[in-house]
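Narrative progress, year one. The postdoctoral researcher (J.K.) led the effort to move from monomer predictions toward full complexes, under supervision of the PI. The following entry was the first complex the group processed end to end, covering 392 residues in total.
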Amino acid sequence: MHPPISDDALDAIFRDARTFRRWQDKPVSPALLMAIYDLMRLGPTSGNCSPARIVFVVSHAAKERLKPHLNQGNVEKTMSAPATAIIGFDLDFAERLPFLFPQQPNAKDAYKDPVLAERVAFRNGSLQGGYFIIAARALGLDCGPMSGFDNAGVDREFFADSRIRSNFLCNIGYGDPVDMGPRNPRLSFEEACRAL
Amino acid sequence: MHPPISDDALDAIFRDARTFRRWQDKPVSPALLMAIYDLMRLGPTSGNCSPARIVFVVSHAAKERLKPHLNQGNVEKTMSAPATAIIGFDLDFAERLPFLFPQQPNAKDAYKDPVLAERVAFRNGSLQGGYFIIAARALGLDCGPMSGFDNAGVDREFFADSRIRSNFLCNIGYGDPVDMGPRNPRLSFEEACRAL
């Protein structure tokens, strides 16, 4: 449908993009946070189940609520980032399927098994996490995704009274490449893939 | 670091991109399959753990091995697709960490707990699945991702003698939009996000 995107665009979303630990003193506007979501929500999920739920932690007061749940190595970079997204997934995602997938009014019945529902929410919520990172980069932002935090603590603090569970965190802003080393290696095609 | 990518590029990877069920009779070259991986592997994973492993099912013989494990509704579209990627994740991903994350030679010791290792492989392998879909679209291809198949059967057929587990499937090719309806709705920012 579309020709390949430009080399500049490939550089922005993949080739030149890096995980940042240091941030320029430049805020990210609320409109830009909404623009990230407006793109990422278009990415495909299984039966359009769309389980990702996001809290954008921006204010100093909200950052202070997040701080005690971070691994020590993630505190400084998170407190100095213009915004931190808590990417979560909703275990009750199936409740929205009559709206999200109107072709099958009973689609939600397939997820009555809580083990299956958790698996689908975690898989598709993580896929949407990938779309989130790419969407932010596509909009000219830099990302710093992290898994090093107390999920249960974050859930109690930010997702009480719901069945949303935190998946990972992602700092967002305009990165400062000071002290950044070269990119770590990746597995070759031969190591990670086969074509049959 | 980079300005926002062009509207054309945003259209290609998000706004105009759709999940396809029908395919033009036009092959996908081996070089293009390698190009997808060459981009997607650059996306960030936790501690660069890079657990995704991919089998590109291209030949008729390989498609026949996949066919009996597909849900009925996924057979025709998969058999007619130029290629089908089995996106998997390696439960033994930690074995590669001395290469992937040389800054911490003992990083792999953190994943001795098999429950944690599975969680990390599934989360990051799914993130990489998101990068895969965006990379394919960025290269001018269309995708048809699917969860409807027998994971255990695919694992026996394609990942025997390894600890790689299938995650989801993704048909790849040049889509034919015949019979395609409008895109299903998505949750609004207010429904899925909060800014604090």
